[in-house]
Amino acid sequence: MRRLTWRPAELVHSSAETATARTLRFRVPGWPGHLAGQHVDVRLTAEDGYTAQRSYSVAGPADGDLIELTVETVPDGEVSPYLTEDMRVGDQVEIRGPVGGWFVWRPADQSPVLLVGGGSGIVPLMAMIRARRQAGSRAPFRLLYSLRDPARRYYAGELRRPDPGLDVTYLYTRSAPEGAARPARRIGLDDLAEGGWPASFEPECYVCGPTGFVEAAADLLLALGHAPERIRTERFGPTGG
Amino acid sequence: MSIISRGFRGKRRDAGDRLPPGQYLVEDFPVLSAGPTPRVPLDRWEFAIDTEAEQTHRWSWEEFMALPAETPTVDIHCVTKWSKLDTTWEGVSLDVLFEDVETAAEYALVYSYGGYTTNLPLEDLLDGKAWIVHRFDGEELEPRHGGPARLIVPHLYFWKSAKWVRGIRLLNDDWPGFWETAGYHNYGDPWREQRYEGD
Amino acid sequence: MTEHLDGNALAGPLGELFTVDMTSATGRCASCGLTGPVASLRVYGPDPGLVARCPGCEEVVLRLVRGPGSAWLDLRGMVSLRLNVPD
Ligand SMILES: Cc1cc2nc3c(=O)[nH]c(=O)nc-3n(C[C@H](O)[C@H](O)[C@H](O)COP(=O)(O)OP(=O)(O)OC[C@H]3O[C@@H](n4cnc5c(N)ncnc54)[C@H](O)[C@@H]3O)c2cc1C
Ligand SMILES: [Zn+2]
Asked: Which residues line ligand 1 (CB under 6 A)?
């Protein structure tokens, strides 16, 4: 192993995930591979040398030296609108990573897994779901995905397809689809009690999203008796919607 | 070799000669924090000046608000390279607060609710160079910008302008503060670009 | 409102300095004795520097400032650090 350095990365593909989010595929020559849940730091440099850097989770297993990120556009943000709106295929950024050895899921883990994502916090959780599928793992997964409304769903088609051993529950916060049993509201104790695993199953819990969401969800898990050392969190900051 | 991200400019605006070297203009007011935002109820707020001879001068919020106020309009420069021009504050000049303070100390250590500290020579706080302010842009100073009250020392990088200020300790010997012990310059003059230790 | 990140966000900046992943290392808080992974610290920043605080007592555990050509790392709030090192 060696110290991390910045690597040039070229955008090779970009596609809309929702009206405000895009999945970006980068070619990163020499990419060493990564674990599900890890993130990268992305650095942008302007003509005059000004730089800005932000962290983004890797959305799925690598394909050789290709990796994918999904980025939500933060209105007035410095970096995310550049990535989602201004960047064209062939443009370059620098990427440092993969990093983070704590908020990761390894295919050898057999314990039940509870994934709780808010907004763009779904990204590293999706990487875990994809890694599970790719490895043919039998570890039972449950995903609770909190988001404003159905139009904000990332990876909608892929999450609709049956994936044995994975349960997906959407928790809408602003407007739920016509006829939904659960009215639109913020994540609550019932949601985690019904859609999650009982604490006695000792699931590994991964909670990710905007800081306020993570705080709230982690507190609810503690209140339901989940052990603090089995609750792993990744706060994205105020962003993520 | 440097990799340029085509078309990336960041949120900066064009500079003028009112900007110290390496600074960019911003329109918004970025919030930088090294910890949770302290909430200080006004009935428990106090500001103190502690001298090297262990004399303490204290002001409650009421006493502080009764002092003569000024409304300085100043440019502020953050070490993270943003600058903001013509910011208007309201508060009390440190010359007023130091009126009855007897001291021969050369150094000041400013300390805040929440544990933050920053150091500077005492003379940089006097002669109309610094204020304890409680209003910004005509509004009550928000907690995230340092309310109820913060120090403003506009001629030094903005980390010297301690938020949530609680007091000033006068010292015969310099005592480096929070960022000054973690790589930042001890004095921090933006016009000489004294960002890091050794600059 | 608290707007901190998790210790996970230190992985990149610390990965520039160390060859092992520091965020899965276990540290002990010098003020209250709480033991846990660096990834569970509360991180403020990144500007002007990264400040990691203990989730138990909010004291500063680690500070990291990155300047051109130098990094300043202060670990004064940590009594000890157990690292996962491959044999
Ligand atoms: C470990 C980690 C992993 C991450 N992974 C992802 C990821 O996979 N996908 C992703 O999209 N993001 C991710 N993020 C968030 C990402 O790093 C940036 O913070 C985000 O893209 C915003 O950057 P920006 O430069 O566009 O906005 P900034 O210029 O940093 O912010 C602009 C301003 O808007 C404010 N602001 C930001 N968001 C909001 C909001 N929602 N509502 C109101 N005000 C707001 C900010 O405080 C700031 O004042 C991750 C963060 C971390 C720490
Ligand atoms: Zn502690």
From this structure: A 39, 54-57, 70-72, 74, 76-80, 120, 123, 234, 236-239, 241; C 5, 8-9
* Pair (A53, A88) in one structural domain: yes
HSE (side-chain half, CA atoms, 13 Å) at A68 = 21
CB-based burial of residue A29 (10 Å sphere; 0-12 exposed, 13-18 middle, 19+ buried)?
Answer: exposed
Peptide bond between residue C48 and the one before it cis (omega within 30 degrees of 0): yes
Same domain for A81 and A129? no
Measured distance between the N- and C-terminal CA atoms of chain A, rounded to whole angstroms: 36
Number of structural domains found in chain B: 1
Residues of chain C positioned with their CB less than 8 A from the CB of B37:
1-2
The answer on A95 and A117 residing in a single domain is no
pLDDT given for residue B14 in this prediction: 61
pLDDT digits (tens, 9 = 90+) for B153-179: 999 999 999 999 999 999 999 999 999
**Helix residue spans in B84-166 (DSSP H):** 94-97
Find the CATH number of the domain harbouring B103: 3.90.420.10
Residue B16 has pLDDT above 70, yes or no: no
Provide the CB-side half-sphere exposure for A210 (13 A, CA). Answer: 14
pTM tops 0.95, yes or no: no
The answer to whether position A1 is within a domain reads: no
**Boundary (domain end) residue, out of A43, A75, A99:** A99
- Angstrom distance (rounded) from CA C54 to CA C40: 8
Identify the nearest ligand to the CA of A123 by its number: 1
As for the ipTM of the complex, it is 0.92
φ, ψ (nearest 5 deg) of residue C50 = -85, 130
Instruction: Decide if B80 touches C, using CB distance below 8 A.
Output: yes
User: Is A240 a residue whose pLDDT tops 50?
Assistant: no
What is the spatial distance between Cα B111 and Cα B162, in angstroms, rounded to a whole number? 8
